[in-house]
Amino acid sequence: MSAKISFLQYISRNLMKQDRRQFLLKAAAASAVLALRPFSSEAFSPNSIPSLPEFKDEEKYWKLVRDQFPLDKTKTFLNNGTMGPSPYPVINEVTQEMLHVDTIAKYGGYEEETVAAISNFLGCEKEEMSITRNVTEGINIVCWGVKLNKGDEVIITTHEHVGNAGPWLNKSVVQGIILKPLSPGKDAQETFEIIKKSITSKTKMISIPHVPCTTGQVYPVKEICAYARTKGIITMLDGAHPPGMLNVNLTDIGCDFYSGCCHKWMLGPKGTGFLYVNKESRKLIQPYYMGGGTDLGWDLLTTPVTFKGYVENGHRFYYGTQNAALLKGVIKAIEFHETIGKDNIEKRVKSLSGYFQKNLVAIDSNIEMMTPFEEISRGGQVGFKIKGKEMTALQKYLGERAITTRYVAENNLNNLRISTHIYNSFAEIDTLLGHIADYMKA
Ligand SMILES: Cc1ncc(COP(=O)(O)O)c(C=O)c1O
């Protein structure tokens, strides 16, 4: 079968043996997809997006970007913080490579290319990058790999996602480390001071989000990591959100470890992530899972058996067969971002969230803003509450009006989170503001 076979042909050839009703239903669904967009990567190559400066009317440019996404146009999706919908070039790349791999019956590879693309995108060396499936996996690799003793203290925050809380809680149960959860300050300076004051002679590690899932506040991680280094404290950042939202440079941040994903703000395939391990810090974590690609050689025929050690790069932390289709999708997602420009994306994402934040607080004095207004602490997410109200009710109200948001239940915060990415528009924010204003009046 040719790799160029259409999606509809593929479905019809392969479903012949199935129940006829089932087949017709699936074929109808495939036709609907085709009616929406032809399944051809050429038509939606990132290169087909012109550059932003060519547009006098910026909104027209972002409308063109929006057209690159199959994302349901009858709804307003303001929850990229949970899931980043991919644009057509990524989806096409994944589906075509999946078909290709199974046509030629070879796994496909693309690990080196993916590691190179992510490192280049996030400003670090290739040797410092590992492939993972998600943020949680990277955090677990570091959490279990780092040697801590009973009674050693690890600083986390009261705004953790389970992906950073779970591994450390488990380590506290299994190995007796002590967790010190801190509440972040109202701005970068205060957050930095709180962290500094919480450090004791027993603090061995700081493992906090770069941007928490709760309020979207951008923490002053560069300052925190630099300070921690002077005290000999290891730093791990939960980077679920910033890559693809902010113009992240890992070398500049100066952390020991950074675990991120490609399935949120990078808009890549789901179940793709990465772990950055600063080359100076590689020795601080013991790899526990070994397999294809992790080692420098082994021999079971010698006595005793021979193990020549771990590779001197990020491959010591991932192993075995990878999914070439997903990896190619990650490379395409990065190409998509770079075509638009990391700075342009950060600016757009922040201007949408800033517009929302400013106009939201003007609606009613009972609206409590949880995300700082100061520029350095803002990204593409805004968290807020309404005094005396259960925020699940507002989430439901907005959901009934086709607007998807995220309710933050973590640590009883009871707030709503609005995420704004490049496929969103000011018109959508105006609609959201209008609904919130109506809700406050009701
Ligand atoms: C701050 C934060 N950390 C970790 C995670 C977990 O990410 P993953 O599902 O990629 O492991 C999330 C997911 O929403 C998150 O928001």
Q: Categorize the overall geometry.
A: globular
Report the CATH superfamily of the largest domain: Type I PLP-dependent aspartate aminotransferase-like (Major domain)
Structural class: alpha/beta
Largest sheet: 7 strands, mixed
Give the strand order of the largest sheet, numbering strands 1, 2, ... along the chain: 2-8-7-6-5-3-4
Counting structural domains, the number is 2
Overall CATH architecture of the largest domain = 3-Layer(aba) Sandwich
CA radius of gyration is 23 Å
Bound small molecules, deduplicated: pyridoxal-5'-phosphate
Helix percent reads 25-40%
What sequence of helices (H) and strands (E) makes up the elements? HHHEHHEHEHEHEHEHEEEEHHEEHEEEH
Number of strands: 15
Which blocks of ≥5 consecutive residues have pLDDT under 50?
Answer: 1-44
* CATH topology tier name of the largest domain: Aspartate Aminotransferase, domain 2
Overall residue-averaged pLDDT value = 91
CATH class (first level) name of the largest domain: Alpha Beta
Query: Please, what is the oligomeric state?
Result: single chain
Fraction of residues in β-strands: 5-15%
Q: If helices are DSSP runs of H or I spanning 4 or more residues, what is the number of helices?
A: 14
End-to-end CA span: 60 Å
